[in-house]
Amino acid sequence: MASSSVTWAQEDVGVVEDGPTLEALDQRERILERKLELQSEAAAERAKAAPAFGIGPNGLTARTADGSFSVRVHGLLQLDGRTFFSAALPSNLEVRRARPILDATFLQLVDVRVMPEFGEGRAQLFDAYADLHPVTWLRLRAGKFKPPLGFERQQTDANRLFLEFSAPSNLLATRDVGVQLWGELGDGLFTYALGVFDGVPDSGNGDVDLTDGKDVAVQLTAQPFKRTGVPVLQGVGLGIGASYGSQKGTAAAPNLAVYRSPGTQAEFSFVADAVAAGDHSRVVPHLRLLAGPLEVLAEYAYSQQLVARGSDTVVSANHAFVIQAGWVVTGEAATFDGLVPAHDLAPGDGRFGAVELGLRYEELHINGATFAGFADPTKSASATRSAGAVVHWALTQSVRSSVSFERTWFEGGAPGGNRAPESALFARLQANF
Amino acid sequence: MKPLALLFALAGTAALADTTLLNVSYDPTRELYQDVNAAFAKAWKAKTGETVTINQSHGGSGKQARAVIDGLEADVATLALGYDVDALHQKGKLIPADWQKRLPNQSAPYTSTIVFVVRKGNPKQIHDWDDLLKPGVLVVTPNPKTSGGARWNYLAAWGSALRKNGGDEAKARDFVTQLYRQVPILDSGARGATTTFGQRNIGHVLLAWENEAFLLTQELGKDRFEIITPSVSILAEPPVTVVDRYADKHGTRKVAQAYLDFLYTPEGQAIVAKHHFRPRTGAQPERPQLFTIDEVFGGWTKAQQTHFADRGVFDQIYEGGK
């Protein structure tokens, strides 16, 4: 409307017989300038009110002008090449993980995540939860997600130091369906989580629970020196988690764990007719350190499950530990949230991303009673010890290539005694966006 | 301290805790409410011991009403038009239908009217409404579709033409049609129109709230502008209300009500007068002769429907002028 009126003004006012007066010309110029100014203001106003769309290292994003609602579509893709030097296993290429991820926030109060997994021939829902977070110290999460046990388990699959889980994480749940209260206290000095879950076997990923038994899980973590002035202490963190529940299985669904080596090969399983028969408890302490380019994690896990085979029962009590360290040789600060290069790869500018080296040693022990009829010592190892190294090259914040080598020694696990050591060389190209 | 005693102590502390109000208002009241807020906060502190902070939000009256309806959680609304406050009830169910009866003077604690601002020396010799139609006169007024103040301007022009022509609606329509042909720019709000006229030096006459006219002359220089009071104009009654739903949600109803009551006190009315709004108390100037929207247009709802709704009279005369 405003634009049309300018025309009227030019035609109808400030015109004399000999043509426009100087004043009219001046007014005409001012009107045109003001009109442009108003159009610019209106455009800015419309832009402020319009939803914002973006694309970048964090995927595709959209949010309303006031930030009340936002959506982010991103993903994780891991392509692996695997070679086993000493085991009778084929070398192969595989899609280890392929995950489209949808994150949404409603009213800046509720976060929602939906994440299916399509790697290794699976089509399974991994994360599907809603997080109500009125305040940082009190949040409520419900749905399917990682139960609050173990530090390595809580790290995202794109950001762990090693390509595959360590032995302690074997003893913990992958995902479970439940509800938990959690939050931060003291501006991040402490975190807590307390949840009730359907309950899954060690390394289990539950979707449907056919029993009444439930697991209660709790975890507390602290960074007690976070506010001290001592840098090496500021990055010290510790935590402990525990769970207790009753899980029972059936012949069709034994509800028992299979533990896997760093090369992802089954190293321990129960005999086929054994089933979970009741109490299942876990304890998981950890100690961690971040100091400049250095990261260290030491984690221990203990898991015991009452197992039945016919009328016999046994408490299968197993434990594992890992100690691992990483060093970012290009000088960036190490984090537990992934390797972020100071500069993305740009060879022409002399920038080559970031490189991190890692080492780890881990052990897993199965109690002897388990082998009294509940596990086959010619197929399952009673203990494993592994040592490995990894190197990561982060080309950008989103793209990383990695190579790891791990050698595992077994106690038992073969008809003739000890299974032959496993030497696994894994290479991975990862896009996390 | 025992836990129960501690609980009561905390509760007592909470009762004296700071309270914050949000006053969603229209463009020309910014300075008025800055003073009102400071005075009320002081009075409230003296009376109750409670610290109250009043935040202000200003914009075009219609846009502000829309924002509140859409979720801007105002504790009080102090808008330009009864129509905009009505919308809080009709479209948002945020206030009761009889909101206007809850405070004296139809919930309008101050009034104003529409006057002319001309450049110093009044080079176009503008003294009354008819002078606006002189050849070559450029009139600055905002868009009545988006600005409450602009609607007052429009209705003031229409009503004055009616008065002059013995109630002849056709002549009033002709007058307003001619008037808007001499409007080069329609700003979205009253403050924008003031900028167009006062700072961008566009036009020969600005139709403005009386208080806005004084503010313009004070801020931009008395040596640059003159205020011309026409013989006839409209009585603008900007209304105020507690926004019940949000005040109750915030637990601020009591202080919000007191805030609006304060506007009617001698201190509040003095602040109103200081900012060139017309207080409800005291003698009123003789010029202009004032008519109300109820008298001439049958109230805001009818005026809105007739003149400013889509395809209403304003759309017809403005589109027709293209």
Main sheet of chain B? 7 strands, mixed
* Overall morphology of chain B: globular
Detail the poorly predicted runs of chain A: 1-16
Instruction: Supply the CATH class of chain A.
Output: Mainly Beta
Largest sheet of chain A: 16 strands, antiparallel, barrel
Estimated helix fraction of chain A: 10-25%
Summarize the amount of helix of chain B as a percent range.
40-55%
Radius of gyration of chain B: 21 Å
Tally of helical segments of chain B: 15
> Which structural class do you get from the secondary structure elements of chain A?
mainly beta
| Beta strand % of chain B | 15-25%
Overview of this protein structure:
The complex is a heterodimer of chains A (433) and B (322). Chain A is mainly β and 433 residues long. Chain A has five helices and 23 strands. The longest helix of chain A has 28 residues, at 22-49. Chain B has 15 helices and eleven strands. In chain B, the strands form two sheets. In chain B, strands 4, 5, 6, 7, 8, 10 and 11 form a seven-stranded mixed β-sheet that branches. Chain B has a four-stranded mixed β-sheet with strand order 2-1-3-9. Mean pLDDT of chain B is 89; it is low at 1-16. Helices cover 48% and strands 16% of the residues of chain B. Chain B has helices at residues 3-15, 30-48, 61-69, 82-90, 104-107, 148-164, 169-181, 190-199, 210-220, 244-250, 253-262, 266-274, 293-297, 300-308, 313-320, and strands at residues 19-26, 52-59, 76-78, 110-119, 139-140, 205-209, 225-228, 232-236, 240-242, 278-279, 289-291. With 322 residues, chain B is of the alpha/beta class. Chains A and B meet through helix 1 and helix 2 of A and loops of B.
